[in-house]
Amino acid sequence: MEMERKYLTQVAKQNGGMLLVDQVIDLARDENNILHKHFTWDDSKAADAYRKQEARALIQRCRIKLVETEAMEVRAFVSLPTDRENGGGYRLTTRVMSDDNLKEELLHDIKMTIQRWNKKLHLLDQDLAELLMAVEERLQGVPVEEHRTAA
Which terminus of the chain is less hemmed in, N or C, by CB atoms within 10 Å? Predict the structure, then answer.
C-alpha cells in the first residue's frame, strides 16, 4: 500500500491537494497503473458506482505516520463536509492539518461524529459511552480528571 499511497499523494499534490474519486478511477483504468489491481473491471460484475466505493475504500486505507513523541498512523486523506456537499473528494491530511480553517472543519466533523456515536452508545453500553465522552472531552481541551471531579 505504500507505493499506492505515494502515487495518490503525488496525484493530489498535482491537483491542488485534492484527490477526486473519478480521477482515481480514470487513472486506474490503465492496466499498467499501480492502482489498476484494486478495482473490479468486469462490467458484468461491477458498475461505476461500485468502483467509486472501491476508490473510497482505497483512499481510506492509505495511512501516514505522525511522529512527535510516539509514532501514530492516521489516514493519509480525509473527506470534509464541505467537500461532500460539493460533489465529494479527499484532501491530503497534511494539508488539512496545516490550514487552520480546514483543520477546524475536520475537528468539528470529528466532534459531531463522536456526539452521534455517544448517543447510540448510551443505548448499548455505559462503559463505552463513558470512554467516548472522555475522548470528546480531550478534543474540547477539557482534562478528563478535572471534568470528573467537577461532576
Answer: C
For 120-137, the pLDDT digits (tens) are: 776 767 777 677 778 777
Q: Where are the domains of the chain?
A: 2-98, 104-150
Taking the complete model, does pTM exceed 0.70, yes or no?
no
CA-CA distance, 19 to 36, in Å (whole number)?
16
Closest CA to 21 of 63, 68, 66, 57: 57
* Residue 135 Cα to chain centre, angstroms: 18
pLDDT tens track for 40-82: 888 877 788 788 888 988 988 888 777 666 767 888 999 999 9
Q: Which of 84, 97, 77, 94 lies closest to 4 in space, CA to CA?
A: 77
Exposed, middle or buried by CB within 10 Å (0-12, 13-18, 19+), for 136?
Answer: middle
